[in-house]
Amino acid sequence: MTKRLQVLLEESEYQALQRAAGARGVSVAEWVREALVAARRRESGGDVDRKLDAIRAAARHMGPTGAIERIAAEVDRSYLGGPGPETPGY
Question: Is residue 37 situated within a structural domain?
Answer without folding.
Answer: yes
